[in-house]
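Open question from group meeting: does this chain pack into something compact, or does most of it stay loose? Before anyone orders reagents, we agreed to write out a predicted structure and look at it together. Recording both the input and the output here so the notebook holds the full record.
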Amino acid sequence: MTKAVLQLEPLTCPSCIKKIESTLDKTEGIKSARVLFNSSKVKVEFDELQIETIQVERTISRLGYPVLSAKVS
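Structure tokens returned:
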């Protein structure tokens, strides 16, 4: 499993959290996703054999939340 922390542009509403988390939770290869509203970060754990970091970023960006940076571990 790979872990990543994605920095988003500032989030403006709590419903943003639900939208991002529910979409990522339904995405194949993603084990868990948690949005930190105050810091506008998304912590994601995923199977790198099923999905790549760039695909996670694109999924979030398509929802209307641009990813500014990603730190993968």
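Observations to bring back to the group:
The chain has two helices and four strands.
Helices lie at 14-25, 53-62.
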